[in-house]
Amino acid sequence: MRYHQEMRTQRIAVVGAGIFGAGAALSLRQRGHEVVLFDPGPLPHPLAESTDISKVVRMEYGGDEVYMALVEEALEGWRRWNQAFPAPVYHEVGVLVLCTSEMVPGGFEHDSYQLLRRRGHAPERLRKEDLRQRFPAWNADQYPDGFYHREAGFAEAAHTVRFLLDEVRRAGVQVREGERVVGLLDGVAGQGGGVVTADGASHLFDGIVVTAGSWTGKLLPELAQDLRPFAQPVFHLRPADPQSYEATRFPVFTADIARLGYYGFPVTDDGIVKIAHHGPGRRMDPDDPLRTPDEDQVEELRAFLKMSLPGLLSAPIVERRLCLYCDTWDGHFWIDRHPSRPGVTVAAGGSGHAFKFAPLIGDIIADVVEDRPRPDALRERFRHRPERRHVATEEAARKSAAPRRVQE
């Protein structure tokens, strides 16, 4: 993926210190650029998409070979980070991919299973009795088909960002924590432009990388129709018998996710089972402080637990919140030069499935900043594409997310 050539050292501002911003800042600094990373803080930012106790790292993308191949490369990066960071952040506990009916062609589970096999992996097919014996927390009568794949797991998200920011600082990036960028200055006479911070100060740079996640549409209103914040409910439950939800018996799971939307994680050392939803979501202002799921969402969770995981039905919900996705219409990331602002690169639109690519995302962004060649599939998929407004998502695990015709 990488293309090496000599290029002029630039002074570059990166706006937003989540996984996109931290990764971009590190890659650009490693390529010799002077980098300043702005974020309103604290870091990791508590409201950022990247900040959570866990994120799924799965290879399963239905029949989408582009993403599966990219995850294969990312997995090697996660394993390298486990060796380099002060403590492991990626836990390869496997993923349980369940279906409420027989897997059939065109479905997320079936197409993922077949593509994994074609690419040389070894997912284990699970029928009802297999599920009952190996993973007893599940109501096997509701899930007659599916598979378990060992090459998957979860990342400790906030720890990953924290360790990556430590690397960023050690590399010599200037981290301006507590400085919110509220505007951009257009470039003149071949210069990249600048940023304006909340204190009214202007800072000039050769290039600017906007990695502001759900706030991107506020900083760049002309892209607000394409990069839109949608809220997804996240719940932390505390089971009375946490040992029943340890990773060997309760790995990362997706439960007929393209239809039901639910996924989750094994119990943490603190006795927490996290379950969240990966569906259409609800439009939300990223500055809205009321990030709490409503009672309808709680009832939907309870209905899912009653059907699927009855042992968790009585578990108290000790934390509930709304996680914001920076959504694109088609579910693909948006990593490209700004169409009308010279010197500005936009890297956003994680759409709820970008974190697994964390070890690669910095170099993908840096290649765009430096105008280096990229694989055709990634260039086409991540380009500026306003003509795709109002299409349905193409992310196979989220097919139930129909187009959302909202008032812009």
How would you portray this structure in words?
Helix 1 runs parallel beside helix 5 and helix 1 packs across helix 8. The protein has nine helices and 21 strands. The N terminus and C terminus are likely disordered. The chain is globular, with a radius of gyration of 21 Å. The chain is 25% helix and 24% strand. It is an alpha+beta fold and 408 residues long.
Mean pLDDT: 94
Amino-to-carboxy terminus distance:
37 Å
Regions with pLDDT < 50 over 5+ consecutive residues?
A: 1-5, 401-408
C-alpha Rg (nearest Å): 21 Å
Query: Strand count, sense and closure of the main sheet?
Result: 9 strands, mixed
Task: Tell me the structural class.
Answer: alpha+beta
Following the backbone from N to C, one meets helices and strands in this order, namely EHEEHEEHEHEEHEEEEEHEEEEEHEEEHH
Strand content: 15-25%
Q: What is the overall silhouette?
A: globular
Give the beta-strand count.
21
Range of helix content: 10-25%
Number of helices: 9
Task: Summarize the topology.
Layout lengths: L10 E5 L3 H12 L3 E6 L15 E3 L7 H20 L5 E2 L3 E5 L8 H11 L5 E2 L2 H7 L10 E5 L3 E3 L1 H14 L3 E4 L3 E5 L7 E5 L4 E4 L1 E4 L5 H4 L8 E10 L14 E4 L6 E3 L8 E5 L4 E2 L11 H14 L8 E11 L6 E4 L6 E5 L9 H12 L6 H7 L26
Parallel strand pairs: 1-2, 1-13, 2-9, 5-15, 13-21
Antiparallel strand pairs: 3-8, 4-8, 5-7, 6-7, 10-11, 11-12, 14-17, 14-18, 14-19, 15-16, 16-17, 20-21
Short overview:
This protein has 408 residues and is α+β, with helices and mostly antiparallel strands.
